[in-house]
Amino acid sequence: MKASTFADLSLLFVALIWGATFVLVQNAISFLEPQSFNAVRFTLAAILLGLWLMFFEKDQLKKLDRKLILSGIMLGFFLFIGYAFQTLGLLYTTSSKTGFITGLSVVLVPLLMIGILKQRPSINSIAGVSAATAGLYLLTMSDVSGLNIGDGFVLICAAGFALHIVFTGKYSSSYPTLLLTTVQISTVAALSAVSSVLFEDWKRAFNPEVIFSANVMVALLVTSILATALAFFIQTNFQKHTTATRVALIFAMEPVFAAITAYFWANERLTYSALVGCALIFAGMVFAELPSGKFESFIRKVFPKKEADFKA
Q: Nearest-CA neighbor of 128 among 290, 302, 258?
């Protein structure tokens, strides 16, 4: 199996983890406030990664330097922005609009690649992004109310996640995976803890009746081990073998997996438009996987008069 194919399958597994744990997180934050939950979640993940680093990957510690630390902090900051502003936006806007605007990171990634990395997306990527964006709209947008300040906060969240994907692609091949992952996860833990102290009732995180309740404990263990430590290690390790745009398209499958999980675990029913949206997101991911030459040949056959446009 090609390295890029295995990388894409690994990242799809990450999207599956995130989508499958969405219901768990929703239940947990009804008992423990979001930033407090993230502080505990990312702290546990950082401890797990740190222990693994000290006992099994000691050689990586020799490569810890200022550049790696700054790169890890930057990745952690963008990741924190994504989580923090998504939570803040939910206070003012609907969950359906939040899901759609967050998913717009799939559009922002290729734009940021052009502006920051000077890399132009392929025709495959453009087709995939277009299909996935339409799919996200159909899957998540159950209301079409006017824009509000919450939507602006969620757009910042989408930019944070997009920047995290772009810069993970830039730094993942330059530094040891476990070390870089540990630094960025520790950064999110620290920033979430500060945010919790400033804006939430952080003392609830130290209340045994809250922290040891079944909903919170299960969510913390599953998300800290699978959805944080393992997921971001996989992303940091395998993104070097694929493009940032393909990663964004793969991660656009997260709401699809979340919808499927909600169907089986929470008895939620999908509308016909949501089902079409799921299909379009999947199609967008497939478009990005097609060999560029074959896809362009197909487009030329369908739109022969536009052939000159592709040569330009």
A: 290
Indicate the range of 6-10, 42-46, 133-137, 271-275 predicted with least confidence: 271-275
Is pLDDT at 266 greater than 90 in this prediction?
A: no
The candidate with the shortest Cα–Cα distance to 96, out of 267, 266, 273, 280, is 273
For residues 11 and 239, the answer to whether their CB atoms sit within 8 Å is: yes
**Rounded-to-integer distance, Cα 113 and Cα 9, Å:** 22
- Label residue 14 exposed, middle or buried (CB < 10 Å: 0-12, 13-18, 19+): buried
The 3-state secondary structure of 235-281 reads HHHHHHHCCHHHHHHHHCCHHHHHHHHHHHHCCCCCCHHHHHHHHHH
In whole angstroms, what is the distance from residue 162 CA to residue 15 CA? 15
Q: What is the mean pLDDT of residues 14-21?
A: 93
For residue 119, the number of C-alpha atoms closer than 13 Å in the C-beta half-sphere is 17
Q: What does the H/E/C string look like for 135-180? A: HHHHHHCCCCCCCCHHHHHHHHHHHHHHHHHHHHHHHCCCCCHHHH
Tokens of 8: 């894409």
Residue-level pLDDT at 311: 45
What local confidence, expressed as pLDDT, does residue 261 receive?
84
Average pLDDT over every residue of 98-110: 90
CB count in 10 Å sphere of residue 210: 18
**Could you report the per-residue pLDDT of 34-81, keeping only the tens digit for each?**
999 999 999 999 999 999 999 999 999 999 999 999 999 999 999 999
Short-list 66, 98, 116, CA closest to 254? 98
Per-residue pLDDT at 167 exceeds 70: yes
What does the DSSP assignment read for 5-35?
HHHHHHHHHHHHHHHHTHHHHHHHTTTS-HH
Q: Among 234, 225, 187, which residue's Cα sits nearest to residue 78?
A: 187
Task: Give the residue extent of every domain in the chain.
Answer: 3-311
Burial of 184 (0-12, 13-18, 19+ CB in 10 A): buried
* Residues 68 and 179 sit within 8 Å (Cβ to Cβ): yes
